[in-house]
Amino acid sequence: MEVRTKITRSRGFEKQLDKVPDFIRKKVLFWIFLVESNGVWEVMKSPGFHDEPLKGDRKGQRSVRMNKAYRLIYQVIQNRIHIELLEVHKHDY
Fold this sequence. Notes:
By secondary structure, the chain is α+β, with helices and mostly antiparallel strands. It has one domain: RelE-like (YaeB-like fold). Helix content is 33%, strand content 31%. The chain contains 3 helices and 5 strands, in the order βαααββββ. Strands 1-5-4-3-2 form a 5-stranded mixed sheet. The longest helix has 17 residues. It is globular, with a radius of gyration of 12 Å.
């Protein structure tokens, strides 16, 4: 039996998701669908999302590129079983 990945969303994430452009919202929802269907570790392997660990104050969190400007920030709570979506916002360069 395959274990499904549980996804929770922070309150801040929900507010930010309401404010992003529609095409970014759709890509975030597609990423969530892929994680729920295939597991976060399989989706991490997809080069299209550029999933990468963060450093410094954000150690333990991961970043996924929705496009050149927008990032989805999440953290793995329990290995492969539970992730929390923290933020979706325009990335500062």
